[in-house]
Amino acid sequence: MLNIQPVAPQIDIVPPTLTMLAHSQLQTFEPSYINWFNTPSSPCSLFGFRFLSDQPLSLIPLPRSPASVSLSLRTKMAKVYTFEEVVKHNNKNDCWIIVFGKVYDVTQFLHEHPGGDEVLVSATEKDATDEFEFVGHSNTAKNMMSKYYIGDIDRPAVPVKHVQNPTQLQNQSSGVAMKIFQFLVPLLILGLALGLALGLRHYGKNG
Ligand code: HEM
Predict the structure, then answer these.
(1) Which of 1, 10, 85, 182 falls between 20 and 30 A from 73, CA-CA?
(2) What string of pLDDT tens digits covers the 207 residues of the chain?
(3) What is the extent of the structural domain holding 147?
(4) Residue 103 CA, ligand 1 centroid: distance in Å
């Protein structure tokens, strides 16, 4: 009896009809067909998966999506994740981030990221678009992102983010400086007045 195990994210790019066909037909396939299925030109390989001939038979994804599956097909069939689902992947062993409404699994990229792994882990559990933009990532960086793209975010589910931009931060720090200044000036005046009074008293006694 063949046991067909589902499937990695990549299988989501297969139109549902084909997936169903594969699941139902494969129950009846002889193992000899399986070798053919695994040849690079077979429909299976074309759509990004292959079969293990071990028992139980498993349906597993190919390491890379074949070029023959067009990007537009992949985009149309993109998996949509809820925010709740994405926030579970929030550590160094399993790190997903949301940028520009897309979900990226950057776990394998953590140790290669020029900005360090900590910054990526701290970008989890929120929409990290503003932080990503604030760094001023180059086009090279933006082009690299497609490698880690795993799907889109269910936008309405993303909580409103609170990221301060540089102007806000500047305003905030100048506000703090103003408060310190307002506190110090009266103290300074009081000190001067006291000093003057003591000085006058001293000279008055002596003179
Ligand atoms: C898939 C997502 C990401 C990719 C592919 C990526 C890639 C890169 C690359 C290639 C650089 C080198 C500078 C450049 O070429 O722009 C870089 C730097 C950096 N990245 Fe990212 N990054 C990603 C996400 C993020 C996020 C979400 C954050 C912040 C929350 C971040 C923070 C930084 C920082 C702080 C630097 C160092 C900037 C510097 O030293 O000037 N990155 N990143």
Answers:
(1) 85
(2) 444 444 444 433 334 333 333 434 444 444 444 454 555 555 545 555 454 444 334 444 444 444 444 454 455 578 999 999 999 999 999 999 999 999 999 999 999 999 999 999 999 999 999 999 999 999 999 999 999 999 999 977 676 555 555 555 555 555 556 666 677 888 888 889 888 888 888 877 766
(3) 78-157
(4) 15
Residue located nearest, by CA, to atom 21 of ligand 1: 115
Residues 49 and 18 in one domain: yes
SS (HEC) of 73-125: HHHHCCCEECHHHHHCCEECCEEEEEECCEEEECHHHHHHCCCCHHHHHCCCC
Q: How remote is the CA of residue 25 from the centroid of ligand 1, in Å?
A: 45
Whether residue 4 is contained in a domain is answered as no
Residues paired with residue 90 on neighbouring β-strands, in sequence order? 95
**Atom from ligand 1 closest to the CA of residue 137:** 16
Cβ of 106 below 6 Å from ligand 1: yes
Which of 86, 113, 163, 165 maximizes ligand 1 atoms within 8 Å of its Cβ, making it the mutation to test the pocket?
113
Distance 41 CA to ligand 1 centre (A): 38
Cβ–ligand 1 distance for 83 under 6 Å, the answer no
What single-letter DSSP state applies at residue 6? P
CB environment 17-28: b (16+ within 10 A), e (fewer): eebeebeeebee
